Amino acid sequence: MKIVIAGAGSVGRYMAKQLSASGHTIVIIDNDPNAVSRVENTDSITSIQGDACEVDILTAAGVSDADVVAAVTGDDEDNLVISLLSKQEFGVPRVVARVNYPNNEWMYNEMWGVDVSVSTPHLLTGLVEEAVTEGSLVRLMAFDHGKSGLAEVTLADGSPAINQTIGSLQLPREATVVAVIRDGHVVTPAPDTVLHAHDEVMVLASGDCDADIRAALIGTK
Question: 2-118, what's its fold?
Answer without folding.
Answer: Rossmann fold (3.40.50)
